[in-house]
Amino acid sequence: MDVSKLNYRSDLDGLRAMAVLIVIFNHFKICLSGGFVGVDVFFVISGFVITLGMYPNIINNQFKFGHFWIRRIKRLMPALFLVLFSSTLVFSFLLTPLDLKLALENVIAINFSVSNFYLWTKYGGYFSDNAQEAPFLHTWSLAVEEQYYIVWPFILIFILKTFKKNQLSIVLLLAFLFSLYISQKGVEKSIAGAYFLMPTRFFELLSGSWIAILFNQHKLLINHKLQHILSIAGLLFIIGSAYYLNAEHEFPGYNALLPVLGASLIIMSPSGITSKLLSLKSIVFIGNISYSLYLWHWPILVGLVYTQNDTVLNKVIALLI
To answer: Would residue 29 be called left, alpha or beta, if left means φ above 0 and alpha means ψ between -120 and 50 degrees?
Structure first.
């Protein structure tokens, strides 16, 4: 039976909706200078959902690497391939030969789950001018998730076999703090590299994974009143970071704690008022199509910018489409 269905939470789809809208508003330059933190929210959700199903299977010796990765491929790749094919076809008529060459190379990197490495080496920083016209710039985050999906099962199995069950929480706490430290050091050494690479984003996905394990162990029994407070605080952390942060701030590193903590508090509070609001049908609907929205919005925006048609009206039309 599909474990993800047994553990389905509509508020997580609502949280996905908020994350993707924050990202899109940022890219379309609608009042959220730090809207890029929506990706960090996605990372926390991904770590949580993946580990929620993985952990009990590992404990019960039922986890199969091949089955796990095949499911990920079936879930993520069809929509991605459609966007890559359609966008490449259109951009072959729009881009200069050099830009088209870079885009095609990026497509190859995407298929090997190393788009983040390619974008870092070819375009430099995420916020650099030339990167803003890269048709598949947004695929860096997909590569980070895919790389996490590859290494995390091995890491979790190693931890579970090496440490006792009552030591697991402290081990994960230390791992979180260490990976956060690595992220900050990465930012101090190379902001561009730290933004794109999985090791400096590891603590974000690990945060979600840690919460999933605590749920599986029934160690997150928070009373309803406290859940309301935590969920509201989480919402404020996410929205606050989306407004406060901008391209001039060091990121991820310690600054990424704001959206990561925000998403974590909401996930930890399924009965909180924020989770109830995020479970509204209209918001959940957006969450259900959030992956497609994320895949499509960036190539459309780049097409408008590249052809100098990025007027307010055209952007509004693109958003409505």
So the answer is: left
Q: Please count the other Cβ atoms lying within 10 Å of the Cβ belonging to residue 118.
A: 23
> H helices within the chain, ranges in order?
3-6, 10-27, 38-59, 65-91, 97-111, 115-123, 140-162, 168-189, 191-196, 202-216, 224-244, 257-267, 273-278, 281-288, 290-306, 312-320
Q: Is 7 helix (H, G, I), strand (E, B) or coil?
A: coil
Rg (CA), the chain: 19
Position 310 confidence tier, pLDDT thresholds 50, 70, 90: confident
Structure tokens belonging to residue 260? 């990561």
Q: Closest by alpha carbon to 100, among 89, 111, 109?
A: 89
Instruction: Please tell me the pTM assigned to this model.
Output: 0.94
| C-alpha distances in Å from residue 109, one per residue of 143, 163, 199 | 9, 37, 18
The rounded distance, in Å, linking the Cα atoms of 267 and 187 is 27
- Return the DSSP state at 246: -
Give the list of residues 6+ apart from residue 60 with CB closer than 8 angstroms, or none: none
Highest-confidence segment of 14-18, 29-33, 120-124: 14-18
Q: What phi-psi label fits residue 124: left (phi over 0), alpha (psi between -120 and 50 degrees) or beta?
A: left
Residue 296: closest CA among 101, 24, 22, 13: 24
Q: Please, which pLDDT band fits residue 319 given cuts at 50, 70 and 90?
A: low
Interatomic CA distance for residues 204 and 251, integer angstroms:
12
**Confidence class for position 21, pLDDT limits 50, 70, 90:** very high
Residue 262 has pLDDT above 70, yes or no: yes
